[in-house]
Structure formats: structure tokens, C-alpha cells
Amino acid sequence: MGLDAQAFSRVFPKSRSQQLNGREALERIAESAAGWAERQGLGPCLESRMTSDRTLVVEPLPVVDGIQFDLTDRGIAVGFRSSNGGPGFHAAVIDMLDHMQRELGLDWSWIGSDGTCLDETGYALSRDFSALQGSMAEFLKALSRMVEKSGPDGQALCVPLGYLGEGGQIACPLGFQQPDRLRRLCDADEADLHAAASTFFIWWERPLDARQWEQLLRAQLWQVADWRRPVCAADLTVQRRIEHSARMATANDRAVATDLAAALDELRRLQASGEAPAETGIGYRRRLIKHRLYQSWSMSLPGWLVFNSNDGHATFEHDSLWLGTQSMTIALKPGVEVNWSALYGGYAGPSRELRPGVFCRKSALQLQQDGPGHVQTALVMTAQSGGLELLLLTLSSHLSAPFDAFDSWIATIVAHDNTA
After folding, report:
1. Distance CA 291, CA 289 (A)
2. What is the C-alpha separation between 374 and 321, in angstroms, rounded?
3. Could you tell me which of 82, 148, 253, 375 has the fewest CB atoms within 10 Å of its CB?
4. For 71-127, how does the pLDDT look when each residue is reduced to its tens digit (9 = 90+)?
5. How many angstroms separate the first and last alpha carbons of the chain?
């Protein structure tokens, strides 16, 4: 569910009066997007990547869906979703496409074969920003009706997959929101609806001023900050985007909100120290994030852990701990009963039913043989029509805190029927 826009150009990009096609055409579009972003002050916030020789994705901000350009035999198609960014973002994308039209000679058409506007907000044709804000506000009202019907448990709206609500609150682009506040929008008047929308969407007004940069900074700290030491190029890109947003938000000695300043200080400290973050405060990734580990298993783990896949086994790492996982299937002959006691051999702790038909038992805490710290394993299992599904977890750390949290992580495990 979202607000989408599409356009098509039958003219390919030009360079020095020469018409380009193929990969060169998409590369020229990426260059034009980068030039536009630089003039807007977006700088390192914009990233472009070729996902194939015929597809380019331009990401103006790290907290919005990318803009996809597809090369066809008849021209260039572009599409984007703006409902997790807001009206300011939507208008900015249209402005970027206008810039490409002037610079590259493209001829974007926003009218479909049936004569309707391919921009669901209508803004590409009307250029009425007030009406665009109204469309976004109505979209928020539609989301509020969903909340009213389905309840808040674990809900998330307009944020990346895997992010979870907390304490009955709903995960939203700029932080948690109370479900009652969203439900009231179902019957809100225009003024109240617009006021709520301005604090829900990350880019509500059109100008990209210091106040708007503060909103973008808040959104990044909530949605993409990893709350740990950078370990790869992607982490450094996230860090660079956040620092750029902070500089723009604090231009001319402007102060940002106290909670935002404190969160930024904490993030910088964690990036340098390698410590684990506090469990509360700004940031979804300092909390549990849902992962689909394997076809048969999902589990929620701290978002500050670094995910790796080694020989098909999912592992999660940090300076303070290592968690390895392994999924196994044991075929059962028809009519054979599962010998749970035999499977649990070597696991000293009591058996625990996580949810109907899903059982777990942990080993005792043991000293590591090859270094300081301790190690503990857990075996989770469930019987399915295709056999017995097992999930083995191995946690090692030189600290006690991860072992204290191990049970709460295990409690989030869900078994999926891979025969369905």
C-alpha cells in the first residue's frame, strides 16, 4: 500500500547532441541525478546503483524507496513510491525529473494509455503542492483505518521490513506513535489531519531548510543508524549520510532537539568504542529486528548485530558477541513417533514450549575452550509433515549481558511450514 508515480520517455538521453542508449543512457541519468542532488544540498545522501544493464536505482535519501529507471526498447520508464517520504520528497523527485528533461532532452509523459494520470497524487500535472499535501494526509488517514481494524500488536507503518512496534506503540518513520493517536485521525478534520501528517512524514514542507534537515536526521537515526562500529563500506555510507544531515541541520549554529543531539552523541561514541547500545532511545536498530533466518525459521535479534551468511549458515556478530545458527531437517518415516528425549540429549536445561508444537532446550553455560568468555547452545525443534525441523543456536561472549538476553531472543523464534 502506497502512493506511486510512473512516467515514460520515448526519447533516450542525449550527450553533446548524440543520443545514448543501453547502459550509457542509464549512466548519464545517474550523472544528472548526482548533479541535481549537489545543487539541492543533498550531497552524499544520494546514491545510485545499476542493478542490471537495463535498470538503474537512484536513492535520494536513505530512508525512502529508490527511484527506478528501466531501459526498454521504446524508451526510458521511471517509477517511484513517495508515501514513506512525504509531499516534499514527492515534489523533489518531480523536480529532479524536470531537471533531467531539460539537461538530457527527455520527454516524460505522465499520461497512461487509458488517459489517466500515472502520478496517483496528480502533482506531476497540477504542480499544486497544497493538493499534494492533502493527498498525503488522506493516505495517512487510510493507514489509520488499517490500525483501527487490525490493532497495534507489532505493527509498523512506512518503515523497513522487520521493524517492530514496542509496548503497544507502532513503528513509524520518525519514531513510535501511540495507536490511539492514529485512530483519532479516522474522523479528524482537515486541520488536525494535516498537523498529524506533518509529524508523521519525514519531508512535509517543500523547502529543504535546516528545520527539514532535522527531520531527515531524525528519520535516519530511527531507521538506518546501526548503533555500532562501522564494519563495511555500506556502514561508512550510512555514517557519512548521517553526518552530512547533522551538518545541514545545525548550520549557522542552529541547535537541534535535545533528544536528537543526545542520540547523535551516543551514536558517535558507539562508532568509536565498539560497545553495545542501550536498549532504549531513538533508533529501531538498537532494538530487536525480525529476520527470516531460513525457509523454516524466523527470529528477532538486536539490529546492531552484523549479519553474515557462511556456507548457508546465518551468523550475527558484534565486538561483544557471536551468534551462530544452523538449520537441519530430519526425515521421519510414516508412523514413527518423535523421540524428544533422545534429541535433547546433552542439553541440561528444562524443555520449554515456545509456542504450540515448537520446543526448545538450552545447554549449560560453559567456558570457551579457545579464548576468554563463555558459550551456550540452544536447540529448537518442531515436527512438520516433511519431517523434523531443527534450529541450532550457539552464543559466545566475554560479557554476561548477551546470555541474560538469550532467552528473550529465543522466545521470538517462529517455525514456518515449508511444505505449505
Report:
1. 6
2. 10
3. 253
4. 998 899 999 999 999 999 999 999 999 999 999 999 999 999 899 999 999 999 999
5. 25
